[in-house]
Specification:
This protein is mainly alpha-helical and 489 residues long. The chain has a domain of 229 residues. Helices cover 73% and strands 4% of the residues. The chain has 25 helices and five strands. The strands form two sheets. The chain has a two-stranded antiparallel sheet. The protein has a two-stranded antiparallel sheet with strand order 4-5. Strand 1 and strand 2 form a beta hairpin. Helix 11 packs across helix 25 and helix 20 runs antiparallel to helix 25.
Length: 489
């Protein structure tokens, strides 16, 4: 009976967060500190970062969950409560996991159908090395604004841009950073985005007021990002025109290249713009690509396996590699299919275990409340919100919780300071939405890394828009620039 007295559930727009009144801040931080220490040890002291083999980060997250569970046992939290929260977390990522499987299938089927090679072929002729990186940011931003999804942007044009840039000799980390910077700018500014609708709902303002106010910090950040990428494009050592010519010949002789192949990505993007569910849109993309492979890439399929049908199935489910006379292209024209997404999916599952146990023992609520307690000034309130969002992205491994929990917890504090709710909604997006992709075990970081084939460590420093956004919002708060006050009725 004592457990019911110590625990209470805070309903945050349909997501329950456990508040444990007996848990102190030190106990709440123990699992976080141990998790960070283990991850740091793995990064800096373990060769090839394979302490426990390829799935080291996943096991570290499970170890962190065990430490959190031990803290819960010490505070008389039942195993049933912990399992229930983990199960709720798993249910929340079921659709993203299905999307990841389909993205793997999409990558494999679009490879053997010639869609990705065609994108690379035409892209090499249009996108010159001197403008490639800023152009990548702009292209990703436009697609993301149109679709309202950074995930969809990466799974379609993002994959193609990484392929084109790699063929030009540009670092995949740079390209992925440019894709992610543009995609998350578009995700933030699009009225179709779920997080852009969620943030104002949590803060108590309307969608278009939120977008307009968010532009104050977002536009300067993306402009600075474009300047940096323009400078990088002018200084990096890329392949010459002769090398590009050889690449074009190799692609043309290996695949049947035609503009007709773009019908498939066109249909997928059109379905997404028409608000078709992502699972259906991506599934249609896989099926159409399989049909196009039979029509256009008969020779490629014949060389991959005994039967063309087997080649298609293998491309969708497992590893596929198409050999060319160019080593760079041979490396580029390979895909892991659905199998290639297993590492990312396992990482998400383990992250949800850690986040679920941390929520069940009341640690998430305690850490957030402690941050709120030290916010005495206006700048301190903004800073506490930013730290809360960053912390929840790392601890709960979910960008939605990083918006929802601080949104509800800090809402009254902003009102008490006489601040308009759009201050809170903007800060939630500037620090919650965009930084999720910088955490390797966060669902967004794991997804983007898996889809683009570039580790978070490799693209982190180039995801300029994402890590500058929270600094921009803090700078504007510190200088009191465009900090909107509540209008007294």
């Amino acid at each position: 009976m004592s457990e019911k007295k110590n625990l209470s559930e805070i309903d945050i727009e349909g997501q329950k967060m456990i508040d444990n009144k007996e848990l102190n801040l030190l106990e709440s931080l123990i699992p976080v500190v141990i998790l960070m220490c283990l991850l740091a040890y793995n990064i800096f002291f373990v060769e090839d970062q394979e302490w426990f083999g390829a799935y080291t980060n996943q096991y570290i997250l499970l170890m962190g969950a065990l430490v959190a569970a031990a803290v819960g046992f010490f505070n008389k939290i039942s195993v049933g409560n912990m399992i229930a929260e983990v199960w709720e977390n798993w249910k929340s990522v079921f659709v993203p996991i299905m999307i990841l499987f389909l993205v793997g299938a999409l990558a494999g089927s679009w490879l053997v159908s010639g869609i990705i090679p065609a994108m690379v072929y035409y892209g090499l002729q249009v996108l010159s090395p001197e403008i490639f990186l800023p152009a990548t940011v702009i292209i990703a931003a436009i697609i993301s604004i149109a679709t309202g999804s950074s995930w969809t942007t990466s799974a379609t044009v993002g994959i193609a841009l990484v392929g084109i840039g790699s063929a030009l000799g540009i670092s995949p980390g740079m390209i992925a950073g440019a894709v992610i910077s543009g995609a998350y700018f578009g995700d933030k500014m699009s009225p179709l985005s779920d997080t852009t609708n969620l943030a104002p709902a949590m803060a108590g303002t309307d969608l278009f007021t939120h977008i307009k106010y968010m532009a104050i910090t977002t536009v300067p950040t993306i402009l600075f990002t474009l300047i940096v990428f323009a400078f990088l494009s002018s200084t990096i050592d890329t392949k010459g025109s002769a090398d590009i010519s050889n690449l074009l010949v190799t692609i043309d002789t290996t695949f049947y290249i035609s503009p007709w192949l773009f019908i498939v990505p066109g249909v997928v993007i059109a379905m997404i713009l028409l608000k078709t569910k992502p699972l259906i849109a991506l599934g249609v993309g896989v099926i159409l690509a399989a049909v196009f492979a039979f029509i256009f890439q008969s020779d490629v399929l014949a060389n991959l396996s005994e039967t063309k049908f087997t080649s298609i199935i293998n491309a969708i489910l497992t590893d596929t590699s198409i050999e060319t006379d160019n080593d760079k292209l041979s490396e580029l024209f390979s895909s892991g299919g659905m199998k290639g997404m297993l590492w990312t999916i396992f990482l998400i599952i383990c992250a949800m275990v850690f986040g679920g146990v941390m929520d069940a023992i009341g640690a998430l609520a305690k850490i957030t409340k402690s941050l709120l307690a030290v916010a005495s000034s206006v700048f301190g309130l903004f800073a506490s919100t930013v730290v809360s969002c960053l912390g929840l992205n790392a601890i709960a491994s979910d960008q939605y919780l990083a918006i929802v929990i601080p949104g509800k917890m800090f809402k009254k504090a902003y009102e008490d300071k006489g601040l308009a709710p759009e201050n809170l909604s903007r800060t939630l997006e500037d620090s919650g939405t965009v930084t999720s992709v910088l955490i390797p075990w966060n669902t967004c970081g794991a997804y983007q890394s898996g889809v683009l084939g570039v580790s978070v460590a490799d693209y982190f420093v180039y995801a300029i828009f994402n890590y500058l956004s929270p600094f921009t919002t803090l700078l504007f708060a510190a200088l009191n620039i465009k900090i909107k006050q509540l209008v007294k009725k």
